[in-house]
Design brief:
5% of the residues lie in helices and 38% in strands. By secondary structure, the protein is mostly beta strands. The protein has one domain.
Length: 150
């Protein structure tokens, strides 16, 4: 004869159910609402990132950053700001020293600058650019990102 074992869960009374109040839930954002909308380029930075495609395992890139396109205000936490950004490869020598920006018409940076009708990356700040959204799977979850359409 098998007897069912009962598991006793210890509980602690935190508050009475009647005292529960509704709280504002965390707002979710559909970043696709920004697809093909214009934004202003707010900043550019030259940074070095890890790369599996160069001999020195790092690559100099130009990071182009838009103004904030959406903000989530969260109670008790810092606000979350959403902006478009993109990394464009810069030219470097075989030792990883930064040389300049590629002038090939096939480079993504050249295509982007051509769309904006500028000849040098220094002229990017303050220009209007179009946002492109794209989805990427991260740890099994689909996430939407903002970059530039060119």
């Amino acid at each position: 004869m098998n007897e069912a074992k009962q598991t006793q869960v210890q509980t602690e009374k935190v508050m009475d159910v009647s005292e529960l109040k509704p709280i504002e839930s965390i707002e979710s954002v559909d970043l696709n609402q920004h697809h093909k909308k214009e934004t202003v380029i707010e900043d550019t930075k030259i940074i070095k990132v890890n790369s599996n495609y160069t001999d020195c395992k790092t690559q100099w890139v130009l990071k182009v950053i838009s103004e904030v396109v959406h903000t989530l205000e969260r109670e008790g936490e810092d606000k979350i700001e959403f902006r478009a950004s993109e990394l464009f490869n810069l030219a470097q020598d075989k030792d990883g020293n930064l040389k300049g920006f590629p002038d090939s018409k096939d480079s993504n940076l050249s295509k982007f600058m051509n769309d904006l009708r500028i000849e040098h990356p220094k002229d990017l700040i303050g220009r209007k650019a179009t946002i492109k959204t794209y989805d990427k799977e991260v740890d099994g979850n689909k996430k939407t990102y903002l970059k530039f359409l060119y």
